[in-house]
Amino acid sequence: MLDGENVVKKVLATLAFSFTALAVNAVLTGTAFAQAKIQVGCTATSDCASAMIAIDEGIFKKHGLEVEMTPIGINSNIPAAILSNSIQIGGPTSTVFLQAVDGGLDLVAIAGATVMNPVSNGNITAFVRNGISIKEPKDFVGKKVGAPGLNAFLHVLFVKWLVEKGVDPKSVNFVEVTFPTMSDIIKSGGVDAVLTAEPLVTRMTNAGLGTVGARYAIELARTDPIIFYATSREWADKNGSTIKKFRDALTEAAVIVNNDREKASTSISKFTKQPIELVKATPPNRSEPALKPEQLAWWIEVMSSQKMLQSKLDTSKLVLK
């Protein structure tokens, strides 16, 4: 697993390249940080559907904002992208955000994206390739399991599930695998299983690549935040009015995400590059723009128990008022 120190090292390596690019841009344009549009970075999931809808339905523009979506391959890369100004707002999982802050990165959550519920929990699985038999939790011992970001949402939940089932997580070999490459790596046998969610589960099942080995999120039955929108505290301090407009737009867009499957599916398919028929078959994760500091308490408890956090985080400082 990556610890806070390794997350920071990863961020610093990205920053070194990014700041060089920004310096060149400063010479060419006269300012390194001038942004014609706000870039919002998310991985290829439905969790940032509220931002996707707000773009496609003109809601951001109605609130006076120019916003674009930027795909991010691995969720754990989002903090680095924020601090390098490649994106101004990102959709990190709760776990990636908390570990980045624990590692010393000055990030702050500005709005909610999605929360766990019975429907979204049912969409999450450990998908197992053909030739591998998984009948109970202990069968994952010795297996190579791909996660879309080590210490990100799906990974931490799976580790929590293993612990509750009496399985030592250290007995499982975890590697990073991006959502877009999961089908290929399962087909090639590069991993024994992947931690994933719909519509990828249905897509891989229909392709005959394997079967569902465990629906671990259903058994945990949580209602905590999955992903939320975050930025650097410096950017937040300088863009208070923009953040208010951003929040107002998300609130409007969330109603569409939660109630209009056609529009939500169209926007999700457009951003994730998933076939529209597959996206329509799976309800998007529930969009909840409101985010309260106390909603992060369970994640902090779980991550502390997994020794992912080195400090005692103050939830009141993690969410912008």
Main sheet specs? 5 strands, mixed
Helix-strand topology string: HEHHEHEHEHEEHEHEHEHEHHHHH
Shape: globular
Distance between the termini: 32 Å
CATH architecture title of the largest domain: 3-Layer(aba) Sandwich
Q: How do the strands line up in the largest sheet?
A: 7-6-8-5-9
Please state the average pLDDT score: 89
Strand content: 15-25%
Q: What is the number of helical segments per DSSP (H or I, 4+ residues)?
A: 15
Derived structural class: alpha/beta
The structural domain count equals 2
Question: Radius of gyration, rounded?
Answer: 19 Å
Overview of the structural elements:
The protein has 321 residues and is α/β, with parallel strands linked by helices. It folds into 2 domains: 4-115 and 224-317, Periplasmic binding protein-like II (D-Maltodextrin-Binding Protein, domain 2, 3-Layer(aba) Sandwich); 119-220, D-Maltodextrin-Binding Protein, domain 2 (3-Layer(aba) Sandwich). It is 44% helix and 17% strand. The protein contains 15 helices and 10 strands. The chain has a 5-stranded mixed β-sheet with strand order 7-6-8-5-9, with helices on both faces. α7 links the parallel β6 and β7. α2 crosses α12 (240-259) and α2 crosses α13. The radius of gyration is 19 Å and the shape is globular. The protein starts with a helix and ends in a 16-residue tail after the last helix. The model is unreliable at 1-9 and 11-35 (pLDDT under 50).
